[in-house]
């Protein structure tokens, strides 16, 4: 039997069909991955905005806490001076 160096037409057609099918599947997967990356990017952006808002709120709470502490200390000092005075 002679050695088969080339694919016959039937084998080439089967190979081409398999290649085309895999190519389409890869393109579909690439599209799905791209869409998911867009969604993930949007969610990351949303989370970053939430974190920025929380940081701003925490800064405000910290500022108000310091202010309240100073006011309480001032009232305590007034109370001490009134009792002794």
Question: How would you describe what is shown here?
Answer:
By secondary structure, the protein is mainly alpha-helical. It is built from one helix and no strands. The chain has one helix at residues 9-84. The longest helix has 76 residues, at 9-84. The mean pLDDT is 89. Residues 12-71 form a coiled coil.
Average pLDDT, to the nearest integer? 89
C-alpha Rg (nearest Å): 36 Å
Overall 3D form: rod-shaped
Helix content: over 70%
Structural class label: mainly alpha
First-residue to last-residue Cα separation: 122 Å
Give a brief description.
The protein is an all-alpha fold and 85 residues long. Helices cover 89% and strands 0% of the residues.
